[in-house]
Amino acid sequence: MLLVAVNALVGGTLGQERTVLPLLATHTFNLGLYTSALTYILAFGLSKAAMNYFAGTLSDRFGRKPVLVAGWIVAIPVPLMLIFGPTWGWIVAANVLLGISQGLTWSTTVVMKMDLVGPKQRGLAMGFNEAAGYLGVALTALATGYIAAEYGLRPGPFLVGAAYIALGLGLSVLRVRETHHHAKVEAAQHVSSHDAAHGNLTNGQVFALTSFKDRSLSAVSQAGLVNNLNDGLAWGLFPVLFASAGLSLGQIGILAAVYPAVWGAGQLVTGAASDKYGRKWLIAAGMVVQAVGLGMVAAGDSFGIWLAAAVLLGLGTAMVYPTLLAAIGDVAHPTWRARSVGIYRLWRDGGFAVGALLSGILADLYGLPAAIAAVGALTALSGIVVAVRMRGNDHVAA
């Protein structure tokens, strides 16, 4: 539960940007083109994706706690850069650091929870972890929206993030304990029916299995990428769409918060459900539900329709998010599970960068609704890939 609390702070550190930064791009720095405004998500996605990979490797080599603490230390300059940055380049640089921090901290809390729980409760543990993180995102997005409306876009919203970083670093240094030894004990007792699950693999072999060779691991990796592709779209373009329709800053803050709030709270149910009923069909159905929500955003023109769409998008993401992580843990052997989680999260958070580029280019060429509709169609296709390619009984084998 201490790690759950730490990950809520990790999510809150990200949430300080969700409502405010897209508006900072257009109102303070006068960035007209969607592609230019989305550069901060591209920078965040690339740096976080890379750090996800290194977080798994480093935590296997040096232990989990040092990686977690290092992630918080990297985050210390971020609020100051967001508050005082005189040019957009400073904001982009802050998001490079934020991506590094999120990759190290969030990945490590995932791995530490997998260390601590057995396979029968892996989905439940991932549900708690991701629920805490995204409820942290949602509540902070809502709070910073109201702070920005009352006191301006800077500095107020980012002081919240500074407080989160101080508290998260303090808890990680003083209270969190190392968990790597739990994984070593589990590795000695591990039994699996899958050829992919043997130990003593090189980093290259783990990368190939997770990305391409193993049917379940590769299906999970592509679904994770597409999921965060549409999350990058929601982060960067939804506030701009809502503002262009005449919604107030308070209404935009509500919409920015509802999606991750439903996503966060729903995972308390969906993670445990995947332990009981399996991972495959929950993931496939969740991608389709997300696609429906995106279609509603593209077709909508009012707060009520967009609110319903945000709920659907959050529900679909809740079905997918902890289930994907648990599915990685089902197949990966404990001796290389942290590396496999890191590689999956590399692909998944690479979706932020792909989403920023793709949605920005499409929005510049064809307008916001067309960009959102195209990403919705891609999300539905990803669900079909999961239904066709992923094995259905991995959680039983683990």
TrEMBL record:
It is found in: Cell membrane. One of its GO terms (cellular component) is plasma membrane. InterPro entries: MFS (IPR011701), MFS_dom (IPR020846), MFS_trans_sf (IPR036259), MFS_Transporters (IPR050171), Sugar_transporter_CS (IPR005829). The chain crosses the membrane at residues 31-55, 67-84, 90-111, 131-149, 155-174, 281-299, 305-325, 369-388. It is a multi-pass membrane protein. Keywords: Cell membrane, Membrane, Transmembrane, Transmembrane helix, Transport. The keyword Transmembrane applies. The keyword Transmembrane applies. This is MFS transporter.
